[in-house]
Specification:
about 240 residues; alpha+beta; 10-stranded mixed β-sheet; two-stranded antiparallel ribbon; 4 helices
């Protein structure tokens, strides 16, 4: 039996994983549950872990995985149905699909089949690096990870987004496009020459690129200096 706050936190983590493929930060969890400090979140996460609802990934700062949901949430879906986290583990996605498919929106006749998308080099989760490279290879991902539009993947270098559950060596799935809503994690091109993965914010007429690691400061630019190249929709992690 979960307390109300434990249930609220589990559902918040679950919905965020479904939406973006990555767990929320401790600050986001604190704000969502209207708690005064992150120590309350630590206690709730420990309680959920002890009850077998979530798992903290080893050697990964604040990375969470939802293992199960309360029975009341899955009744009616059959005894064999289990929740699967949005983070892909291991080498899944490294084998080319057969047949290969273009990175377009999934539909009924592609349901359950892997979708091939291009890997466009590395993206900095730290100090910005050179602009996005040309395609290096392709990976296949489950169609349910994608929505409408074109998608591409980038290999993450750096640790500035660790509190958002994004680590050095991860591969992020990005929906291509120039638009973003404040609070979303985006691929941003700075001055047409530096690409970085950060949380997108607006500060008056300026754009802020916010890290999810206190070791990195938020960088603020004029609107003409930053171009959004797409927003994060999923994550592939190698162990």
């Amino acid at each position: 039996m979960l307390t109300r706050k434990q249930h609220e936190l589990l559902m918040f983590i679950h919905e965020r994983m479904k939406e973006s493929g990555i767990p929320p930060s401790f600050d986001e969890m604190k704000d969502a549950l209207d708690l005064a400090s992150k120590s309350g979140i630590h206690r709730l996460i420990t309680a959920l872990e002890e009850r077998g609802f979530i798992r903290r990934l080893p050697n990964r700062a604040r990375a969470l995985e939802v293992i199960k949901l309360p029975e009341s949430m899955i009744s009616g879906f059959g005894q064999q149905r289990r929740f699967t986290p949005s983070v892909i583990e291991g080498s899944l996605g490294k084998e080319p699909p057969a047949p290969q498919r273009k990175p377009v929106a999934s539909n009924d006749d592609t349901a359950g089949q892997a979708v091939s998308i291009p890997v466009m080099g590395r993206i900095a989760a730290g100090v910005p690096i050179d602009a996005i490279q040309h395609q290096t290879h392709s990976i296949s991902v489950p169609p349910e990870m994608l929505g409408s539009g074109d998608h591409y993947a980038l290999e993450v270098k750096g640790d500035s987004m660790i509190e958002a559950g994004i680590f050095d060596g991860d591969t992020v799935i990005v929906r291509n496009g120039p638009d973003a809503t404040p609070g979303e994690i985006v691929v941003a091109l700075v001055d047409d020459e530096e690409a970085t993965l950060k949380r997108y914010r607006r500060k008056g007429a300026s754009i802020a690129l916010e890290a999810a690691n206190p070791a990195y400061e938020t960088r603020i630019f004029g609107p003409d200096r930053v171009k959004v190249q797409g927003k994060l929709v999923g994550l592939i992690r190698q162990y």
